[in-house]
């Protein structure tokens, strides 16, 4: 049915991702059968999602939305791997990462330019400066952090708390095994104190800062 669209609209060119190659080629065959000129197949590579394995998709939760707040967009892009960063440079900016630059600096440049595409330049610059304050300088106390209002504040396992924060604040679905790895690696902190046991029972107070990983933190409300 999708291929038949090419006949109905008498398409000259069909644009699609590489995963649509079959549908586009079948459209060409249908056009030939109907005595129409065959459309040109114009294919683009698939952009991998934030985890670097599956295609970027809202249903998979591994996406950056073009209408997201600048800080969320920046933070998501800073969370990708160095290998995926090179791919994003290629597909989103049309060039390779800066030669000889530290991967972290290259990633900040990538995030800044993409945020600047969808937000005013002044907003992108402020977001970069906020990130520097929040993570590079580790001054989370004075950073403008997103608020997190957990339903339970006492006796909640660390792995559940962090998973909930990812989901409710950043719309990211992190499995308990993923979160457990982050905790064991020392990425999770509460007011600067590392939480290294996924099963640790946590009691929260308003105003505390929960750091989820090297690019995301929330303030308990």
* Low-pLDDT ranges: none
Number of helices: 8
Give the total of domains: 3
Report the portion of residues in β strands. Answer: 5-15%
Describe this protein with a few key phrases:
single chain, 221 residues, alpha/beta, Structural Genomics Hypothetical 15.5 Kd Protein In mrcA-pckA Intergenic Region, Chain A, five-stranded mixed sheet, two-stranded parallel ribbon, 42% helix
Q: What would your notes on this structure say?
A:
With 221 residues, the protein is α/β, with parallel strands linked by helices. It folds into three domains: 40 residues, no CATH class; 73 residues, no CATH class; 74 residues, RNA-binding S4 domain (Structural Genomics Hypothetical 15.5 Kd Protein In mrcA-pckA Intergenic Region, Chain A, Roll). The protein contains eight helices and nine strands. The strands form three sheets. The chain has a five-stranded mixed sheet with strand order 3-9-8-5-6, covered by helices on one side. The protein has a two-stranded parallel ribbon with strand order 1-2. A two-stranded antiparallel ribbon has the order 4-7. Helix 3 runs antiparallel to helix 5, helix 3 packs across helix 6 and helix 5 packs antiparallel against helix 6. The longest helix is centred in the middle third of the chain and has 16 residues. It is elongated, with a radius of gyration of 22 Å.
């Amino acid at each position: 049915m999708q291929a038949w669209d090419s006949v109905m609209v008498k398409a000259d060119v069909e644009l699609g991702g590489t995963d649509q190659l079959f549908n586009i080629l079948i459209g060409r065959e249908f056009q030939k059968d109907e005595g129409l000129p065959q459309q040109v197949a114009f294919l683009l590579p698939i952009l991998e999602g934030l985890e670097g394995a599956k295609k970027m998709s809202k249903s998979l939760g591994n996406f950056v939305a073009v209408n997201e707040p600048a800080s969320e967009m920046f933070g998501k892009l800073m969370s990708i791997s160095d290998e995926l960063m090179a791919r994003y440079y290629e597909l989103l900016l049309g060039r390779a990462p800066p030669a000889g630059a530290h991967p972290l600096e290259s990633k900040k440049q990538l995030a800044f330019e993409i945020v600047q595409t969808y937000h005013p330049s002044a907003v992108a610059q402020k977001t970069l400066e906020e990130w520097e304050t929040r993570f590079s300088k580790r001054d989370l106390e004075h950073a403008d952090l997103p608020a997190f209002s957990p339903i339970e504040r006492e006796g909640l396992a660390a792995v559940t708390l962090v998973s909930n924060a990812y989901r409710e604040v950043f719309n990211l679905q992190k499995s308990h095994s993923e979160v457990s790895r982050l905790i064991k690696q020392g990425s999770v902190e509460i007011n600067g104190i590392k939480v290294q046991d996924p099963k640790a029972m946590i009691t929260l107070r308003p105003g505390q800062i929960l750091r989820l990983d090297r690019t995301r933190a929330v303030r308990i409300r």
